[in-house]
Amino acid sequence: MQTKFKRHQKVKLLQDPDPEYIEYHNSEEDLENPPKITKGMIGKINILLPNGRYHVEILDKKGNTVAYAPFDEDSLEAVV
User: Fold this and answer.
1) Domain that residue 62 falls in
2) Mean of the per-residue pLDDT values for the chain?
3) 16-29: buried (b, 16+ CB within 10 Å) or exposed (e) per residue?
4) Given a cut of 70, is residue 68 above it in pLDDT?
5) pLDDT number for residue 31
C-alpha cells in the first residue's frame, strides 16, 4: 500500500477531529478540563490503521503528547 505519510512524520491537522474518537493521553487529568483539539495543531503519525486512516499523536506547543485521533490522508499536511 502506497501512503503519503511515514511513521513519526510531523503533520499539521487541516480539520478538527471527530470528538467521539479522541483519546486523551492523560485521561485522569483531562477528564475535568480536556484540552481543545483543533485544526492547525501539530501532530506525529503514530500508525497506519487497517482502514487506511492515520492514527495521529497530537502535540501541544511544547511538544508534549495531548491526545490521539484518527485522520484521513486528506485531513493532514506534512510539516517541513
Assistant:
1) 10-78
2) 90
3) ebeeeebebbeeee
4) yes
5) 64
Task: Give the list of residues 6+ apart from residue 1 with CB closer than 8 angstroms, or none.
Answer: 48, 52
> What is the spatial distance between Cα 40 and Cα 50, in angstroms, rounded to a whole number?
25
Confidence band (pLDDT; 50, 70, 90) for 25? confident
The residue-averaged pLDDT of 37-59 equals 95
| CA atoms of 7 and 70, how far apart (whole Å) | 14
Q: Is the pLDDT of residue 60 over 70?
A: yes
Residue 2 lies in a domain: no
What is the spatial distance between Cα 23 and Cα 58, in angstroms, rounded to a whole number?
10
> Residue 35: which CATH number?
2.30.30
Q: Answer whether residue 3 is part of any domain.
A: no
- Give the total number of structural domains in the chain: 1
For residue 20, give the 3-state DSSP assignment.
helix
Residue 42 domain flag: yes
